[in-house]
Design a protein that fits this description.
Strand content of chain B: under 5%
Oligomer: heterodimer
Radius of gyration of chain B: 21 Å
CATH class of the largest domain in chain A: Mainly Alpha
Structural class of chain B: mainly alpha
CATH topology of chain B: ABC transporter involved in vitamin B12 uptake, BtuC
Number of strands of chain A: 0
Distance between the termini of chain B: 71 Å
Order of helices and strands of chain B: HHHHHHHHHHHHEEH
Largest sheet of chain A: none
Order of helices and strands of chain A: HHHHHHHHHHHHHHHH
Number of helices of chain A: 16
Number of domains of chain B: 1
Number of helices of chain B: 13
Shape of chain A: globular
Helix content of chain B: 55-70%
Radius of gyration of chain A: 22 Å
Chain lengths: 376, 324
């Protein structure tokens, strides 16, 4: 996906331009806040205070960050293979179904120590399976993965409504939710872990899934840049024809990339279903899959960039909730607007500023070299 | 017998109403995609247009002014899409996703700021909406069996935008397949280099195509907010832009086939609404979710090449780099 044909040094290409793009997105967001008649500076202050100013806020911020790391990595690994996986939302939904079904079936029979690893595997497998069908259709039947993954988001949503309303609903209640899992199947919350260590922090949905997210970051970095499979994925993404000459089968590589992508998106289900809600319900993905697109574009498809971008979006989500609470004329959806603007400026218009920067950089380096000649 | 007939007529009547925005959007997408610009932002443009139409109608009380405003906003977003995809050679899908997300957020943010109703616009009086048009002689023909009912229930009693949508289809066919502009439009989607060699501006043609796309999605949005409904509610498009895209692909990027697909998907929707909670003999309760998901499932099956083959315009999604 990276099209750096420019003559700019690396620090401008991977440092300055992404920051500039995000800055433009935030600037336009500020203008929208002005348009509503509020002060952007005050809004930023409330958001940062709400997201990072006290322990509960930090807990929520990191909880959101966990989801964004999963969906961001999911989009990124597909991008490396030249594929655009818009289906993160549906894969996360089905991943949650996977871990939820597993816990409904086995939370009383399996040893609690095994519940977490098998739960992770169940979420990953379900997410991966939901991504594998569009991947198969792209690899072997030539249908466009963007369209099929969009369609699969809607199919996932219809499937979940059907299952929750008709099959998995706890008998005798109106709201479409399953029974609550046994206590032993709940992932420990951060405030519980800190309490065992004798430190008291406020309750928040943050749970140990965040450690799994960190492991996924390192694992994905190793996988993409340090294994032959990662090499195959990047080759196919860079130039499919050349990859064939290198002895790589594009179809298999597409399947592999999407399988991993779907599994990563499915891990959102571990955080949400096993970590926070402790039961199956509807709409717990809440757009995290789409935010993954913004996160991946902003983080330039690199795990390190994705961590930074996820943190920023975590701050925006939690700070946005706080902002909506403090300022009645502003709603949480402001974060959705910012997200859209980030995708626009960091994605579609990513190279808008490049000619200007090239011009400025050229002018600067010419002046420097002529100054250097003058001295010599 | 009488009941079945009435049920069929009323279902078809509902089909026309739910198909209208799909038809506008599918034709909009056809212009864009035939010129080589992937457009998954039909949804976002329609949503923005619906919001602006409802807002303008609520403030001015004029449905026509609202329609104009909706077209302006949708065209503005279309130009933004063009600016990203044509001028800056950005990824079409990324740009489309950005517009969709932007629209879903901004309509709520501005809606709450302007009207303080939790994202809804004020309910519109009928003077500020496009109201059903009753054809002449409906009552005189009412006594006639079959035909009278069809005339009264099915053909008459829709608002002007419904009839317009059905006119847009042959018009689209005529423009795309019978005019010089249409020939060039199709050429630029298949082989832009050839068009450029003939001395015609690729960018100019593609900008005109996305503008037409914006105009038509403006109609679709206005229909949702000020004709079919009496105001805007958040996320009121509810994936219809994607269904229209599916219909366009299902119709293999051809006007009449896409139109047929829109009617089919509209029919499925109308049936799903009518079958909610109905028990059928032998089948039990019909899973409404399955019927609602059918357009998506059918499109996936079609794209996989199991029902004929859907071949997209050849140069779709590729930025055109003019050699210097």
């Amino acid at each position: 996906m990276s099209q750096n044909s420019s003559t700019l040094p690396r620090w401008i290409d991977i440092g300055l331009i992404p920051i500039l793009n995000v800055a433009m997105a935030l600037l336009v967001s500020g203008l929208i806040i002005l348009l509503i008649g509020e002060s952007p500076l005050e809004a930023v202050q409330i958001m940062i205070q709400g997201a990072l100013g006290y322990d509960e806020g930090i807990g929520y911020t990191l909880y959101y960050t966990t989801n964004f790391v999963f969906t961001g990595l999911a989009v990124a690994v597909a991008f490396h293979a030249g594929l655009f996986n818009i289906g993160g939302e549906g894969q996360a939904y089905i991943g949650g179904l996977g871990v939820g079904l597993f816990l409904l079936l086995a939370d009383d029979s399996l040893s609690p120590i095994l519940l977490l690893p098998v739960g992770i595997i169940a979420a990953g497998l379900f997410g991966a399976a939901w991504a594998a069908i569009p991947a198969y259709l792209q690899a072997y039947r030539g249908s466009h993965i963007v369209i099929t993954t969009i369609m699969f988001n809607f199919i996932a949503s219809a499937l979940m409504v059907y299952l929750m309303v008709n099959v998995l609903i706890k008998p005798g209640q109106m709201s479409p939710e399953s029974r609550v899992f046994l206590d032993t199947a709940h992932l420990p919350f951060a405030h519980e872990i800190f309490a065992w260590m004798g430190i008291k922090i406020a309750r928040s949905p943050l749970n140990i899934s965040i450690i799994w997210a960190a492991i996924c970051c390192i694992g994905l970095w190793l996988f993409v840049w340090r294994t032959r499979w990662g090499y195959a994925i990047r080759s196919v993404g860079f130039n499919e024809k050349a990859a064939v000459y290198a002895g790589i089968t594009p179809a298999k590589t597409i399947m592999l990339a999407m399988f991993i992508s779907g599994a990563l998106a499915g891990f959102v289900g571990v955080n949400e279903i096993m970590g926070v809600h402790h039961k199956l319900l509807l709409n717990y993905t809440a757009g995290y899959g789409f935010t993954g697109i913004a996160v991946s574009l902003m983080g330039r498809n690199h795990p390190f960039g994705i961590i930074l971008a996820s943190l920023l979006f975590g701050v925006l989500y939690q700070g946005g909730a706080e902002l909506a609470f403090e300022v009645p004329t502003i709603t949480r959806e402001l974060v959705v607007v910012i997200q859209g603007l980030v995708i626009l400026f960091s994605g579609a218009l990513a190279y808008m500023s490049t000619p200007w920067i090239e011009w400025a950089y050229g002018a600067l380096s010419r002046r420097q070299s002529s100054a250097g000649q003058g001295e010599g | 017998m009488e009941d079945t007939f009435m049920f069929a007529v009323l279902t078809l009547d509902a089909t026309l109403r739910v198909s209208t925005p799909l038809i506008f959007c599918a034709m909009a997408g056809l212009f864009s995609e035939r010129s080589g610009i992937i457009d998954i932002s039909l949804e976002g443009k329609m949503l923005s247009a619906a919001f602006i139409a409802a807002s303008v109608a609520a403030v001015t009380g004029s449905a026509w002014l609202a329609l104009v405003a909706a077209i302006c906003v949708a065209s503005g977003l279309a130009l933004l899409h063009g600016f990203a995809c044509i001028t800056h050679k950005g990824n079409h899908v990324v740009s489309g996703v950005a517009i969709n997300i932007l629209a879903s957020g901004l309509t709520v943010v501005l809606g709450i700021s302007w009207f303080q109703r939790g994202g809804q616009t004020p309910s519109l009086p009928s003077s500020a909406r496009f109201m059903p048009i009753e054809f002449p002689f409906t009552d005189a023909l009412n006594g006639t069996p079959l035909l009278g009912t069809i005339y009264k229930e099915l053909l008459s009693g829709h608002n002007i935008l419904v009839y317009l949508a059905f006119l847009v289809v042959p018009l689209t066919w005529w423009v795309v397949f019978q005019t010089r502009f249409g020939l060039r439009l199709r050429a630029v989607g298949e082989n832009p280099t050839a068009v450029d060699t003939a001395g015609i501006s690729v960018s100019g043609l593609r900008y005109r195509a996305v503008l037409i796309c914006g105009l038509l999605t403006g109609f679709a949005g206005a229909y949702l907010a000020i004709a079919q409904n009496a105001g805007f509610v958040r996320d009121m498009t509810a994936g219809q832009g994607y269904i229209a895209l599916a219909a366009l692909i299902f119709g293999k990027w051809r006007p009449f086939s896409a139109f047929a697909a829109c009617l089919l998907f509209g029919l499925l929707d109308a049936i799903a609404i009518r079958l909610q909670g109905v028990h059928l003999a032998g089948v039990g309760e019909v899973p409404v979710e399955l019927i609602q998901a059918l357009p998506y499932i059918l499109t996936v099956i079609l794209l996989a090449g199991f029902i004929g083959k859907a071949v997209a315009p050849k140069a779709i999604g590729q930025p055109y780099l003019k050699e210097r």
